[in-house]
Hints:
Blueprint: E1 8-14, E2 18-26, E3 29-37, H1 41-53, E4 58-65, H2 94-102, E5 106-110, H3 111-122, E6 130-136, E7 140-146, E8 149-150, H4 184-188, H5 190-197, H6 209-229, E9 233-237, H7 246-258, E10 269-271, H8 279-290
Amino acid sequence: MNTQDKPLLAGIEAGGTKFVLAVGHSPTEVIARHTIPTRSPETTLVEAGDWFSQHGKLGGLGIASFGPIELDRSNPRWGCITDTPKASWEGCDIAGYFADRLNVPVGFDTDVNGAAMAEYYFGAGKGASSLAYVTVGTGIGGGLVIDGRPVHGAAHPEMGHIFPRRHPSDREFAGICPRHGDCLEGLASGPAIKARWSASLSDLPAEHEAHEIIARYLAQLCHSLVAMSAAEVIVLGGGVLKTGGLLDLVKKQASELNAGYFPGQSKHQIVLPGLGDDAGITGALLLAAAD
């Protein structure tokens, strides 16, 4: 059968502020794409289903979703968003809705695991044995891929909720995480930056202390990832990383934290996404192809 005659793959990058929808012949051959705002589940899922219904027979759907989510297929809540602070989404059976609505097999994982897989196979990690993907934006989340498979344990990794050492110039800010206060997400996410300095990092002058402080926190995460997983490639994405010069500051501070200790140091890389803003939706389509 010609590739063009096969049922299309469908993908959803389900974010807290928007859903990115796509159909394509493969994860890297997208033929149609659409973005809708994330509102209530009833409104958002129906609108997404209506869009997919316009594209004929689908062979499978991949969902790369904000979380926390249930990934254990033996659990009756598999495919559900669990205890998210996102209003009205707790308990939403997002995978079940689309399996019933579109009558297709559904692949399901976190948005950051989807992006990590996309970067591993098609982006900045192509050819590497292991990759960690971290997004720094409205929240901070991360996924880890080793030998082509995303790491799952009792649940999925929550890299944004580690506790970094506080920067000497950042002792007073309590942090904004509703569960942990001054975890990494509570200190270095986009909303945490605005709560502290009343502006996004990219809007603050280059000499502002915020750049060095946020770079220090992210460098600690990179150092921890290398120490715990020996990841060859760490991809830093999300809106905060679009701040000019931030990546170089993170790399510099991560090197200082390492102090020449880790073996194979020359193989470790900290980079921006090779797929740019397409990592998430590419990962969703990859989940569709794999299911």
